[in-house]
Amino acid sequence: MTVLSNNMTCRHKPPTRIGIRALLFLIAASLLLAVTPGCTNGTPTETGPYAGYTRHTRDIVGLFNTVISIIACCETTEDIERLVDSAATSFQELHTLFDIYEHHEGVTSLYDVNAAAGGTPLPVSVEILDLLSFCIDVSERMGGKVDISLGAMLALWSDARESGRNDPDRAALPDPAVLREAARHSGLDKVEIDHDAGTVRILDSAMRLDVGAVAKGYATRIVRDELAAAGWNSFLISNGSSSIVLHGRPFQDGKDTWTVGIQNPSALLPGPGEEAEGQPDYLAVAHLNDRAVGNSGDYQNYYIVEGVPYNHLIDPDTLMPADRFRGVSVFTDDCAMADLLSSTLFLLPYEEGRSLVDSLPGTDAIWIYPEGRAVSTPGIAPLLTEVQFVEGHP
C-alpha cells in the first residue's frame, strides 16, 4: 500500500522483534493499493463539524512480512499514538499466533500446529481456532480453490521463489513429481478442530497448513473491530499489498469518502509485449467508506525462471501459478473475506468467479487482464473515477 502524500510518514516499531522472510522484496512488491485519505497530514481542519481534526499516518514495520499503514483523523497527536500503539500490540500478537515459519517462546502458533502434525491434539488460542474454522468453512463454500491444507506443496514453491530471487542464474521450477507427492498430503477433512477442548490436530504427519491467503485480512478484521469498539471513528488500515479496511469517513469538511487507487499491474511488471514506460500507475480510483478491499496479483510475489515470471498464486488443480488474470480486486464488508475471495477469484475462471461474486450480497470485484483491459461488476462501477482501463474481456 502506498499513501499518496508528500508529507513525512512516521515509522512505528512493534513491541518486540519478529523474524521476517523476504521482507525487503515484499515491501517492494506491496504497491497494490494506493490510498488518498481526506485530511491533510499535519494540517488541522479549521471549520465545520470536524474542526481541529488532523490526518495522521503511521507505518508498523516488521509484522506479517510487510508494512502495515494506518491513517486516522484524530484531534491530538496523543490520540494517534494511542490508536497505533493499540493496533501494533494486536497485530504483534496475531502475527505471532498465525506465523507458520518459526517457533515463538511461550506461544503456541501455527508453526507449532504444523510441527505436531500426526500427533495428539494441541491446545491453541481462540484466534487460531476461529481462523482455521473460517478458512475451512469459506473454502468449502467457494469450491476449495484456496485450501489451507496444501502447505507442504506451497512450501516447495516458496522455497523455489526464495532461492531463485537469491540466485537468479540458478532459478528453477519445483520438481513436478515432488509437487504431486506433497499435494497428496492435504485435505481439510484431516484438520481436526475441537472448540470445546480448544485443540487442533492435523491427522497426516506430512501435511502442513498455510494461511497466507487470509492471515493479513483476518488479522486486519480483528484489529479494525477492536479499534471501532474502542471508539475510533475515522481510520483506515492497509496490511501490505493484500488487504485494506476503511472505517467511517474522513473527518474533513468536503471529503465524503476515502479514495483507493487500483494499481496497474503492467506499470510494475510489464507482460509480454508491454513496456513499463508510459503505463498509468493506476487503472481507477474507488471512492469508499466502511468497506474492505482485497487484492491478489501476479506481480506481488514472484520470481523469474528463464525470463518468465512465476507468481505465488498456485492453482491446486495444476500445481502451477495461475495466469488467467494480472490482478483481482474485491470490495466487500469483511476484510478477511475480501482477502480470501481475491485469491479465490484469481484462481477461478472468470465465469465461475463472476457467479460466485453475484451470489454474495454486497460484494463486487474487478478482474484485471493484460494490456489495460478489465471487467468490473455493476456495483463498483459507479464508485470509480479516473478509469484508465478498457471495460471488457481480451
Looking at the structure, the CATH topology of the domain at 2-96 and 213-297 and 326-391 is: T-fold
* Number of helical segments with 4 or more residues: 10
CATH architecture of the domain at 2-96 and 213-297 and 326-391: Roll
Report the radius of gyration as a whole number of Å. 21 Å
CATH level-1 class of the domain at 2-96 and 213-297 and 326-391: Alpha Beta
Q: Which structural category fits the helices and strands?
A: alpha+beta
Report the CATH superfamily of the domain at 2-96 and 213-297 and 326-391: ApbE-like domains
Low-confidence stretches: 1-40
The portion of residues assigned to helices is 25-40%
Q: How much strand? A: 25-35%
Report how far apart the termini are. 28 Å
Instruction: Give a count of the beta strands, DSSP E runs of length 2 or more.
Output: 22
Strand order of the largest sheet: 2-4-5-9-10-13-18-19-20-22
Globally, the shape reads globular
Word description of this protein:
It is a single chain. The protein has helices at 23-29, 77-98, 110-115, 126-141, 151-166, 176-184, 215-229, 265-268, 335-347, 350-358, and strands at 2-3, 10-12, 33-36, 54-63, 66-74, 122-123, 191-194, 199-202, 235-239, 243-247, 258-263, 282-288, 291-297, 302-305, 308-311, 314-315, 320-321, 327-332, 364-368, 373-376, 384-385, 390-391. With 394 residues, it is an alpha+beta fold. Helix 2 (77-98) runs antiparallel to helix 7 (215-229) and helix 7 (215-229) runs antiparallel to helix 9. It starts with a strand and ends with a strand. The protein has a domain at 2-96 and 213-297 and 326-391: ApbE-like domains (T-fold). The protein is globular and about 65 Å long. The protein has a 10-stranded mixed beta sheet with strand order 2-4-5-9-10-13-18-19-20-22. The chain has a 5-stranded mixed beta sheet with strand order 1-3-11-12-21, with no helix packed on it. Strands 6-8-7 form a 3-stranded antiparallel beta sheet, covered by helices on one side. The longest helix has 22 residues, at 77-98. The model is unreliable at 1-40 (pLDDT under 50). The chain contains 10 helices and 22 strands.
